[in-house]
Amino acid sequence: MSEPINGAQPTEEGAQFSLQRIYIRDLSFEAPKSPDIFRQDWQPNVNLDLSTRQKALTDDFYEVVLTLTVTVKNGADTAFVAEVQQAGIFLIKGLDASAMSHALGAFCPNILFPYARETLDSMVVRGSFPALMLSPVNFDALYAQELARMQTAGEA
């Protein structure tokens, strides 16, 4: 599977993007107030923390890890904390530096997010809590915001 990424200018050989593998790197679920939490009126307050990281592997292979941490409180009590590190190995080559940064910072996390969302939902349901239906995330917008923040701060 080889396709251009968001208008990137391919090198002489042409740009290549190929998903090699998707896997769970780490998985955690804690329900510290169980079983008492199940006897309370359910008025959840959901907090989602999201982060990504990338690592160059050998040749043109990269690992991208998307971490989603959901903390749900019911009143003052923490009902549960669920976290997944959804990872993927991608073959990416023939992109200029800007396009490579966008591919690793937005395009790859976009691919990983549905897997992470499904994993979190499944874990939460198995913990006997209502389904957790996370809204889609616009990684392109988050990437653009981070670039703007870095430019404002004078970072490279």
Automatic annotation (TrEMBL):
GO-annotated biological processes: protein folding; protein tetramerization; protein transport
Listed NCBIfam families: PRK05751.1-4, secB
Chaperone as UniProt keyword: yes
Domain of life: Bacteria
Protein's cellular compartments: Cytoplasm
Species classification: Bacteria, Pseudomonadati, Pseudomonadota, Gammaproteobacteria, Pseudomonadales
UniProt keyword annotations, A-Z: Chaperone, Cytoplasm, Protein transport, Translocation, Transport
Main location: cytoplasm
MF-aspect GO terms: unfolded protein binding
Family: Belongs to the SecB family.
Protein name per Swiss-Prot or TrEMBL: Protein-export protein SecB
Subunit structure: Homotetramer, a dimer of dimers. One homotetramer interacts with 1 SecA dimer.
Gene Ontology cellular component terms for the protein in this record: cytoplasm
Keyword Mitochondrion recorded: no
Function of the protein: One of the proteins required for the normal export of preproteins out of the cell cytoplasm. It is a molecular chaperone that binds to a subset of precursor proteins, maintaining them in a translocation-competent state. It also specifically binds to its receptor SecA.
InterPro entries assigned: SecB, SecB-like_sf
